[in-house]
Give the backbone structure.
Amino acid sequence: MGEGRTEAISIAIKQSANSGQSVREYFATHPVPFSRVQYYTYCKTLKERGEAGLRDKRKNGNYRKVTQAMRDYLTMRMQEEPSISERELRDAIKKRFRTTISKATLNNLRRSEGMRREKLPAKPERTRRRSGGGE
């Protein structure tokens, strides 16, 4: 996957340089798999580090902080207690796995699992009574 990306970038830069057009004209008339801003960044990287600098250095599938064990634990907790708050879930993850996850990550997980938080039923409204004492 990474080699194809690197090749595509190199080919596009070489074609642009050999076209005889300005970068702006070339981008306006040809399909290029990246923006002009990226073009200049890639040219600088090629000049400083060569083609090796264009390789994607992320791990396969990117780094994910939420492991499968954490995902399973969160799913189980949300099924057991549908009204559990985001704060309580984050605290449980911190306590059990010694790591923190963001509110957005937790909400994305909830959404992907199709689990919405069920709000607790509202407390019944108090009825006021007249006090018989105290003057």
Remarks:
- The two ends are 83 Å apart (CA to CA).
- Residues 129 and 135 are 16 Å apart (CA to CA).
